[in-house]
Amino acid sequence: MEALKDKLESSFIVFENELDDDAKKPVHKIRQQAFKHFEKAGFPTKKDEEWKYTNLKPILKNDFRILNKSENAIDFKDVKRFFLSDVDSYKLVFIDGVFSSWLSETTHDKFDICTLSSMLNRYEDVTKKYFNKALPQAETMASINTAFAREGAFIRIKKNQTVDKPVQVVFFTTAHDYDIMTQPRNLVVVEENAEVKIVERHQSLSEKAVLTNTATEIFAEKNSRLFYYKVQNDNMEASMIDSTSVKQAEGSNVRVGTFSFGNRFIRNNLNFFLEGEHTESHMDGITVIDEGQFVDHHTLADHQKPNCESHELYKGIYDGNSSGVFNGKVMVHPHAQKTNAFQQNNNILLTDKASIDTKPQLEIYADDVQCSHGCTIGQLNEDAMFYMQARGIPEKEAKALLLYAFANDGLRNVAIPELRKKLNKQIATKLNVDLDFEL
Amino acid sequence: MLKISNLHAGIDGTEILKGIDLEIKAGEVHAIMGPNGSGKSTLSSVVAGREDYEVTQGHIDFEGEDLMDLAPEERAHKGVFLSFQYPIEIPGVTVTNFLKTSINETRKAQGLEPMPANVMLKKMREKMSLLEMDKGFLSRSLNEGFSGGEKKRNEIFQMAMLEPKLAILDETDSGLDIDALRIVANGVNKLKNKNNAVLLITHYQRLLDYIVPDFVHVLYKGKIVKSGDKNLALELEERGYDWIKEEQPA
């Protein structure tokens, strides 16, 4: 960990030199402050309450290259399978941290679907208003991302616009000769009464270790609607730390779905700040992992205003020696009356070696609220298994069908049919079954 | 078709079935009656292959083949069907998808191609009308939120689709009102032919007014203590089970 910290420190100096004149821009002040925070705080350890069950040490021990210059060309046909290809969409594609205009489809027409770097160059007002305004300053991994933030998606949907097709944001890494750490940074602004659907994915194309330390800030303004889906299905050499923070204004409705099937290690910090009345927040998660995998979901629903609702449903299936963490914090501030907060975390452990640490954390300072939470950890229902087998469905298929049905709740709300289909298929593959229908 | 000889079985070390002998031939309808706790449901579970039960002695032969070492699904593939007393709710799996999987897995085991979708749909419609079921039923999650009567009807619907050789109906009449009972019984009677057989397991005689058995057996304390024809059921209805109990050696 110390070695990586040293490396980040020296890389930051190189990074500043590279920026040259750009280092004078206001954004760079924010980077410097964020880096200072990291230098002071260091990497999170198991001594931090928020990292109690999650050991970063083994993830940080690689000799990662921090600043990447190479842009290896990618043929679309080789990576087609990582996209929703049977649907018309806007695309923002990055290769080793560099924007690939060749694979992308951007627009500045009725809305901005472009890159963070061009935003930083063109819209100083946007930087001032939004950049690093949603992420909690105490999150060290997000601070590292902020310090090195240079590229990623910038999506701004102007007032009253509904984006006609989904936006796909895909980050590839290609380095074959060395381990790399990347810092993708996204900014999403959905203005008043606007609507957009976004799919985000990170994919390594190499066999070397990759650490993706990504951060996304989302601002949902008055009466806006956002559907944001994270597909986490990278290879076993890839680890990911995702810090995503959502700020919601009055009447907005935001749904974030997180689908974790791949990677060696995943940590999701997903924060919702409900800053206006009558907002609705939805968090869905489906985790299906096996031998050698780890997924940690840390969520926050911060109810600051009255009459808001948050719904959280996380489902997990753990096979082999895999392990998971779910920590769901719900904070209801004193004046946030008529809050309706619902949280559910259901898990199935398929082996004795699989494990899950699940912790609901409710802090309620208002009296007229409805908050419910529940978590279950179980095995497969034996009565249901016998019932299906007695109807001629073999054990393996019966098991898969039950697990499929268990996970299905979280798919029902995926508003992009092609994505739902793809996730269905990924779950089936993960469960090693071939069912001739979709749930 | 089914030959059970000297069957002893139990759960967690407690013996429940204490030497059952029963033979069912193609074309026959048998009824097993008995007071609560006599072992009726254990018998049906053991024949269907539930692993929680341990068979300590005896044999179950089905069409000349030993069933004992077969998994529940393999027994199903050979044509054994158990209609559950308490059908299980499986949220997220529709009736259609469940049946499709059930039928095609059975066909696969029998070396047959999957049933074409249009053929299956036609058959589903046909069997649903036989059981006077609404077609909205097919897209509902299996047994989830079904009333007791709907669950039982759904069991018979699956039986009609799977066309088993031996159907074991475990307390199929419980939870049914008189109209539903008539519809279900009518369905079973229509599916009955000289090549298949039915084993009814019931506490009450009521169902036997509609599905008339060729043989009636009384199960008591894990043994068949009396066998007869349909008149035995009527006698039980009239006199209760006490006289049977009294006839047994203490």
TrEMBL record, chain B:
Domain ABC transporter: 2-246
Domain of life: Bacteria
Tagged with keyword ATP-binding: yes
GO molecular function: ATP binding; ATP hydrolysis activity
Key words of the record: ATP-binding, Nucleotide-binding
Keyword ATP-binding: yes
Gene3D superfamilies: P-loop containing nucleotide triphosphate hydrolases
Annotated InterPro entries: AAA+_ATPase, ABC_transporter-like_ATP-bd, FeS-cluster_ATPase_SufC, P-loop_NTPase
NCBIfam families: sufC
Family: Belongs to the ABC transporter superfamily. Ycf16 family.
Annotated protein name in UniProt: FeS assembly ATPase SufC
Species assigned in the record: Owenweeksia hongkongensis (strain DSM 17368 / CIP 108786 / JCM 12287 / NRRL B-23963 / UST20020801)
Phylogenetic classification of the source organism: Bacteria, Pseudomonadati, Bacteroidota, Flavobacteriia, Flavobacteriales
